[in-house]
Amino acid sequence: LRRWLADPETAFQDQHRTIASASDPDLGVLRVNTDESPLAALARLKGRDGVPFLDPAHVDAGERLRSDFTRGHLQPSLGQRWEPLGTGRRPGEAGGAVELGEAALAARQRIETALEAVGPELSGVLIDVCCFLKRLSEVERERQWPARSAKLMLRTALAGLARHYAGPRRNPRRRPSAPPPRAP
Description:
The protein is mainly alpha-helical and 184 residues long. The chain is built from eight helices and two strands; from the N terminus they run H-H-E-E-H-H-H-H-H-H. 47% of the residues lie in helices and 7% in strands. A hairpin with a 3-residue loop joins strand 1 and strand 2.
């Protein structure tokens, strides 16, 4: 039905994607395929009580990590390079981070601080699911986890990531303490 209702030029693509607009402070308004991320499927799941499995803040945190991962050029290159062999760095020349732009370096720094905040136990599942877009069953098989355990580990990791991105909170119940009375 989706294919039949779609534009004939892009009918096949439109039946397999859901396009939405998203705003990015650096890039402006973007068109995003919301079905691409594994977090989108988990965000649609609801528990017995009708509460969504993932909070919107958790999904936003995962997508923010993925955006920084992409901006930091951390995705491995899977295609062939068509650059001539003679070009590039000369022996003894600096490379790596020197060749990256400021935006990519800043994105890598944001990823590093976010993963440190989550901890080494949970950062791997975040990278696998949010950045490499692996399915939960694939993560469980690779890590030899019990069935349906990756879902809970991911939710715990996303909660920590969302807490990191939210920044420090003030406790509204705490009142500033009064200064001690002066001695006469």
